[in-house]
Amino acid sequence: MEFETHYITPDIKLSEFNGKYFKTEVVFEHHILVWFISGETKIIQADAVYTFNAGDIFLIPRNQLATVINYPKDGKPHKAVAMYLTKDRLKDFYSKNKPTAKSQPLQKVYRFTKHPLLESCFASLIYYFEIGENLPEDIANLKIEEAVRILRSTDSSVDGVLANFEEPGKINLSDFMERNFMFNMTLEKFAYLTGRSLATYRRDFKKIYNTTPQKWLTEKRLKLAHYSILEKQKRPVDVYIEVGFENLSHFSYAFKNYFGYGPNALATGIK
To answer: What SMART domains would the database entry show (predicted)?
Structure first.
């Protein structure tokens, strides 16, 4: 099997992937803390690209658009343990522990490379995955609280993220879409992240762009792909993922239909 996921609690899982690569575009409902055992992950956001390898530990804040691409590496599978830090659990924690940092926007991905305390916290869970047993609830609660306490002691600014329980408010739709159009998310997700119902999102979008979201998104992604191939000398096989297309054949068809020549023709200078 190429992809397997094992849970020892609803909030703690071990995933293993042995295929060529696995790509997904997500908005995490909860903060997620990840420990890499092997393989490589690339996380693409509007303003940054992060690459993580074996031994890295990172925290992805909730409600952030991201393209996640997982690869096996050095003959080993992509393997990682992930811990979800849910709002309910964090609200309970911070009702007893005062935050040391002010609430801040949930934007950056936090990296904790080869952190011995976090590694020890995660490594202690491996036994339960190996024997295939669920982690007792009281121990699971202690392990997640241990991870949160280590995060706070390592980087005091993390409190400003973990203790921020606000939901997305209505924001400037144009600014958001111009920064995030390359993420292949549903219109419902785009609407939610801009603080709108789907009907209001469609109506506001029409007022700004005088077209449909689907048409605008396709054109923006194709134009970005054209620029990346022509100006940055990127290969079409690499570009289509980065600009939000699901597969190469659909990308090539849409590209040729829009520009009158295919992406490979542009890459080789034969049009």
So the answer is: HTH_ARAC
**What number of CA atoms fall less than 13 Å from residue 250's CA on the CB side?**
9
Residue type, 5: T
Q: How many other C-beta atoms lie within 10 A of the C-beta of residue 248?
A: 14
Secondary structure class of 128 (helix, strand, coil): helix
d(CA 100, CA 83): 22
Q: What is the pTM of this model?
A: 0.76
Neighbours of 180 (CB within 10 A): 19
**Cα radius of gyration rounded to whole Å, the chain:** 21
In the chain, the domains with their CATH numbers are 3-162 (2.60.120.810), 173-268 (1.10.10.60)
Q: Which two tokens stand for residue 261?
A: 């020549």
**What is the mean pLDDT, run by run of 10 residues, along the chain of 271 residues?**
83 90 82 94 84 92 86 92 95 92 72 88 90 83 94 88 84 90 89 92 96 96 94 90 87 94 86 59
